[in-house]
Design brief:
Layout: E1 2-7, H1 12-28, E2 32-37, H2 40-45, E3 53-56, E4 59-63, H3 69-76
Parallel strand pairs: 1-2
Antiparallel strand pairs: 1-3, 3-4
């Protein structure tokens, strides 16, 4: 099971990244657990300076933008 974490304070882009990541994970048919990380200190502990960001199994894969579904699929595979 993959652990997917959306790092962000809840802005529209953060919500969009959450929805798109969930959609990509479902299309790939992978088992996953989604978590929203909104605590600034926790976000900074990942080394993220610009949100939204996506961490897969604790590793930040993208930050500061909402990638396309195809890009997300590559990041999740």
């Amino acid at each position: 099971m993959k652990k997917l974490q959306i790092l962000g304070t809840g802005c529209p882009k953060c919500k969009k990244l959450y929805e798109e990541t969930e959609k990509a994970a479902k299309e790939l048919n992978i088992t996953y657990e989604m978590e929203k990380v909104t605590d600034i200190d926790k976000i900074l502990s990942f080394g993220v300076m610009s949100t939204p960001a996506l961490a897969v199994d604790g590793v930040v894969k993208v930050s500061g933008k909402v990638p396309s579904i195809d890009e997300l699929k590559k990041l999740l595979s």
